[in-house]
Amino acid sequence: MKKIKRIGALIAVILLLSLYGISFYAGLTASPNSKGLLMASIYSTIMIPIMLYVYMFVYKLLKRHGEEEAKKRKENQ
User: What average pLDDT does range 27-34 have in this prediction?
Assistant: First the structure.
């Protein structure tokens, strides 16, 4: 499980760094899409960590609930 968490954290870091790179590129170029790229990057920089936190929280709740259900089934048998 630790290895999976490390890989996930590495992917998240790479994703966030690429978003910062896109923001930097959009700021340096004067293309018509630069404002949209910058806004998408800022939005993603905020929302990706929030969504990851929510997914991890729900996973913990579901895992704990599943373990409690398994204990109850063993006790009833």
Answer: 75
In which domain, by residue range, is 25 found?
1-76
In angstroms, how far is CA 25 from the centroid of its own chain? 23
- Residue of 38, 36, 39, 40 lying closest to 23 (CA atoms): 38
Number of structural domains, the chain?
1
pTM, two decimals, is 0.59
Contacts with 37 (C-beta within 8 Å, 6 or more apart), sequence order: 22, 23, 25, 26
Alpha helices in the chain, H assignment, sequence order = 2-28, 34-76
